[in-house]
Design brief:
Helix content: 40-55%
Shape: elongated
Distance between the termini: 71 Å
CATH class of the largest domain: Alpha Beta
Structural class: alpha/beta
CATH superfamily of the largest domain: P-loop containing nucleotide triphosphate hydrolases
CATH architecture of the largest domain: 3-Layer(aba) Sandwich
Radius of gyration: 35 Å
Largest sheet: 7 strands, parallel
Strand order of the largest sheet: 3-4-2-5-6-1-7
Number of helices: 32
């Protein structure tokens, strides 16, 4: 059996696994089911693609979007992997050919949609030898999730049909409810949950609240113009807004297109294709855009309105910086957005949960707490230190020791057996005399009235903050009751210290500082090379009809500018370069790097040019011929280099016997700098060049 690490290097071009990847792969190879929670750009696909290349038979990948399948298949083919997808756009003959190849061992990965799965479960799917089933975007199985797809529930039947092979479910966004649903509705066999950190430290998080439209337009236009030709996505609440923003950007000289469900399929496909291939750098879109895009070089994401929940927001900002390079996310919101979204939520099913999730999103936007801590806490991950890469951290509010205050709230939750909402908790802490408190005998708790020194708004601020930093969790499926997290238990029982922000109703998120326009600074040679590599990548992408990032990611190109690979071994050492990509593109990129280095090499003096040839063991006559000069001139160069202390082996050019004869004549003639008398005294038997070298030796001996 192939070794997983060697497949990682030879096929995908990476030297080491990221967190959890190796354990997940081994778990699958051991024929066990798994649920994999990993952030966008965290390397989920590798977790099933490597087992697919190690197993003998086909790996079936169930994926919700055509564009997502297309992207992954293009990347696999670029790495020399036999992968293909089936979708509704293909003819029957194309599908039959794919199925024939799958049945006869000519494929390693077959991507299908959940709808295709349902159609084929009782027919062709039973004829394909399958080693592994991977369910991508597995959160689509959950009614609590933001992308529910009822067809995903049929995977449970597939699990029964293929009882002896491993199933792996993968997603980048799942709260506690969704995790439960994934395990339950997919019918997995005692799956092990692998949950990697959801932290994306390369993403800068910014929020701007209640900015007037005119100022908002100026800020966004200035920001995008400062990004030059970097790719970015603007998410808008409505179809009309996508069109309006695209028009605004184009009127300001920015190449932008809009994308929404009202466009016909051909128009949508073209916009997406143009964006993926870097033909259009900016897309103004509704939230449906980008779900199926693996584009690694999106450098910024802007939300022009408040998202409806944290899951969707996290997934959308996750489309930036998938290659790990620094990227910016910016959220604009106002209370008009909130009113509209609350109206939408009130009209749908599960309105109580939808409204609560919207409130959590608003709390994030209004927070005076490190935004990364809030995001991670929402997904059940503890971050005890502020991130330093969000707008709150860069403009920090005043902090107070919140340990005792938090312990009061947590103790009250504990004594109610974790069966209170946030509002009822505040009433208990403040000693309110309400029917809800007396009916439940909460007035008899030791913590009743323990926080009466603080008003209702102050407690509301701090309890929201405790949710935001992960001390308290909300059980959406238990009437929004508050639960104490493991982090909260540390504060309550182990006296772990925490800081909370001082309550200030006037606190406002800092607006971005206006930058004065500076004169453009010249690009460094490294930046110049990076741009050249990008142009070469684009040319090759056009020739191969694939997105540029399928050739190499920005991160790989950046590493090339640092390492300057000159041969196959050095090029293969670049992260993201496998054997297939070395064969396909290595020569082109190495030639460009060599040409760049030659063009930017500092200009050599005539002596240094001779020195280079000397180091190549060229003779004096060979150097003279190569440089189109007299041999005596070459000797004078050697003498000059020797004088200036370069490591010149003089005996390679004049023998000791010749040095002795010349030295004898010099002593007889007396001190001289002229060569002709010495030459004549030697009867012309030793040429001028060797005489010059010997005089140089004698001069140095006298110093």
């Amino acid at each position: 059996m192939k070794n997983a690490k060697s497949v990682l290097k030879q096929v995908f071009g990476y030297d080491s696994f990221r967190a959890d990847q190796e354990q997940i792969i081994q778990h699958i190879l051991d024929n066990k089911d798994a649920i994999v929670l990993m952030p966008t750009g965290g390397g989920k696909s590798i977790c099933f693609q490597i087992p697919a290349l190690i197993f003998d038979d086909v790996t079936l990948v169930i994926s919700p979007l055509i564009s997502l399948m297309k992207d992954q298949v293009e990347n696999l083919i670029a790495n020399g992997v036999k992968a293909v997808f089936i979708n509704s756009s293909q003819s029957e003959s194309q599908k039959n050919e794919i199925l024939y190849n799958a049945k006869n061992g000519k494929l390693k990965l077959l991507y299908i949609s959940p709808e295709t799965l349902v159609a084929g479960m009782q027919t062709w799917l039973q004829e394909i030898p399958i080693s592994l089933v991977a369910i991508d975007e597995a959160h689509c199985v959950s009614m609590w999730g933001h992308d529910f797809r009822p067809e995903y529930t049929m995977i449970r039947e597939l699990r029964k049909q293929f009882a002896s092979i491993p199933f792996v479910a993968l997603t980048a966004t799942a709260d506690k409810l969704t995790k439960k649903d994934i395990a339950l509705h997919l019918g997995l066999n005692e799956p092990t949950l692998f949950s990697s950190s959801f932290d994306r430290p390369n993403l800068a998080l910014e929020v701007m609240g209640n900015i007037p439209k005119k100022d908002k337009v100026k800020q966004i236009v200035d920001f995008i113009q400062s990004q030059e030709d970097n790719s970015g996505i603007m998410y808008c609440l409505s179809r009309k807004e996508t069109e309006d923003w695209a028009t605004i950007l184009r009127n300001n000289g920015i190449a932008a297109e809009h994308y929404h469900a009202g466009l016909n399929p051909d128009e949508r496909a073209k916009v997406q294709e143009d964006f993926v291939k870097d033909d259009v750098p900016v897309i103004c879109a509704t939230i449906a855009f980008g779900m199926g895009i693996d584009k690694s070089n999106v450098r910024w994401v802007i939300h022009t309105n408040l998202p409806k929940n944290m899951e969707g927001y996290y997934q959308e900002i996750g489309r930036a910086g998938r290659d790990g390079m620094p990227s910016i996310t910016r959220l604009y919101y106002n209370y008009k957005d909130v009113v509209m979204l609350k109206d939408f939520a009130s009209q749908g099913e599960q309105q109580e949960i939808l409204l609560e999730k919207l409130d959590r999103m608003l709390q994030y936007a209004e927070a005076s707490t490190c935004r990364r801590r809030i995001l991670l806490a929402y997904f059940g991950e503890e971050l005890t230190e502020n991130c330093g890469n969000c707008d709150v951290c860069k403009n920090p509010p005043a902090y107070v020791d919140g340990t005792i205050l938090a312990q009061k709230a947590l103790s009250a939750i504990k004594r109610t057996e974790e069966k209170v909402t946030a509002n009822l908790l505040i009433d208990i802490l403040r000693g309110a005399k309400t029917a809800a408190i007396y009916n439940s005998n909460f007035h008899q708790l030791k913590t009743y009235g323990i926080g009466s020194d603080l008003n209702w708004n102050t407690w509301s601020h701090h309890i929201t903050e405790m949710k935001n930093i992960g001390l308290i969790e909300v059980a959406y499926d238990e009437h929004m009751h508050l639960k104490i997290s493991p982090y909260g238990n540390k504060v309550l029982f182990e006296n772990e210290k925490i800081q909370l922000t001082a309550f200030n109703r006037e606190y406002k998120v800092a607006e971005p500082k206006t930058k004065t326009k500076k004169e453009p600074t010249p690009l460094s040679t490294q930046e110049v090379l990076f741009n050249k590599l990008k142009l070469l990548r684009r040319k090759l992408a056009v020739e191969n009809n694939v997105p540029p990032y399928v050739i190499f990611t920005d991160a790989s190109l950046h590493e090339m500018t640092l390492e300057l690979p000159k041969n196959s071994d050095e090029f293969l050492a670049i992260s993201g370069v496998g054997i297939q990509k070395l064969e396909n593109y290595g020569r082109d990129f190495m030639d460009l790097i060599k040409t760049h280095l030659d063009d930017n090499r500092p200009k050599l003096t005539t002596y240094e040019e001779t020195l280079i040839l000397l180091k190549e063991n060229k003779t004096v006559d060979e150097i003279a011929q190569a440089r189109n000069m007299q041999s005596t001139t070459v000797y004078s160069h050697i003498a000059k280099l020797f004088q200036e202390g370069y490591p010149i082996e003089i005996e390679n050019f004049v023998s000791q016997e010749e040095i002795n004869r010349i030295t004898q004549i010099v002593s007889e003639i007396g001190e001289t700098v002229a060569l002709k008398p010495i030459f004549e005294a030697l009867n012309g038997e030793i040429d001028y060049g060797k005489i010059r070298l010997t005089l140089t030796i004698l001069d140095r001996a006298e110093v």
